[in-house]
Amino acid sequence: MPDPTAGVGIELSDVTKRYPGQEHGAVEDFSLRVEPGELLMFVGPSGCGKTTTMKMINRIIEPTSGSITIDGEDVLSLDPNELRRHIGYVIQQIGLFPHMTIAENIATVPKLLGWSKARVADRVDELLRTVALDPGVFAHRYPKQLSGGQQQRVGVARALAADPPVMLMDEPFGATDPITRLRLQEEFRRLQADIGKTIIFVTHDFDEAVRLGDRIAVLSERSRIEQCDTPANILADPANEYVAGFIGRGAGLMRLALIPIGEVPLEAPDDSSAALGVQDSLRDALDLLVLTGGQRVNVTDESGSVAGSLTHAGISAALGAPRLPTGTAP
């Protein structure tokens, strides 16, 4: 398997899955490349084949035809169990072993790989801290003693335990309440910025795809790719009516959430205005303008000094500006 310390590419070429007795395949002629270190979101309605497509990568489901490679290596030539030990897998149901402690759950794959006890213990502590769970508090608890959000974080930690180059995530936050889900998304976005894994993430929630993904593959029946591009480009220019309908209303607000204030021109400051930082988004600025009823919001730079201000007109103008870089469609 590839070096786990480096991002690796995944390539699917003409991948098809047909079940006996079905007129059409569950997945037909699916081709896509995931770049090293990229977080690619699969978005589509229930039954479109997005989970089936993802599961063929780690051979939980065997493809009928086509090829799948990771870092140029044909996964169909590998022992399936050995393959899965080098691919992190996180599912909505989490799948923690109820009779094992949290530390034992996280240590499952490293132990199978023959890691020493000391190395396993160090890795468990490291990962619990990475997902914001104190090892001294949580390592020796059992899954039933954790909240749903805490269990989901342990599921992510377990998938990362052997430092796999690839992670597959199947609606991992779908079973949590909206507040917990948002927090998990923010934690995962922070985590991915640090670890840079190559990740395929299945979701039916377009807001989640926009919030997390480097690119989004919008899938329709039998995993047909309707559009694959950056969130900003899909929101600004849907490829067809299907994609536009999947996005739904609020595309402008979702686009604003992707644009940092620091990327747009500022006007002269107003001493009486509320302030945001250049790292905040245009959506944050619009929220503040609506809440305060003000005409403009001040913007502070990294040093805390007021760098300028932003008005409703400035926010609207930013939506009309070209967004780069353009993602690569399959």
Automatic annotation (TrEMBL):
Record keyword Membrane present: no
One Pfam family per UniProt: ABC_tran
Limits of the ABC transporter domain: 10-247
InterPro entries from the UniProt entry: AAA+_ATPase, ABC_transporter-like_ATP-bd, ABC_transporter-like_CS, P-loop_NTPase
Top EC group: translocase
EC number: 7.6.2.9
Domain of life of the source: Bacteria
Molecular function terms from GO: ABC-type quaternary ammonium compound transporting activity; ATP binding; ATP hydrolysis activity
Keywords, sorted A to Z: ATP-binding, Nucleotide-binding, Transport
Protein family (similarity comment): Belongs to the ABC transporter superfamily.
Official protein name in the record: ABC-type quaternary amine transporter
Organism: Umezawaea endophytica
Lineage start: Bacteria, Bacillati, Actinomycetota, Actinomycetes, Pseudonocardiales
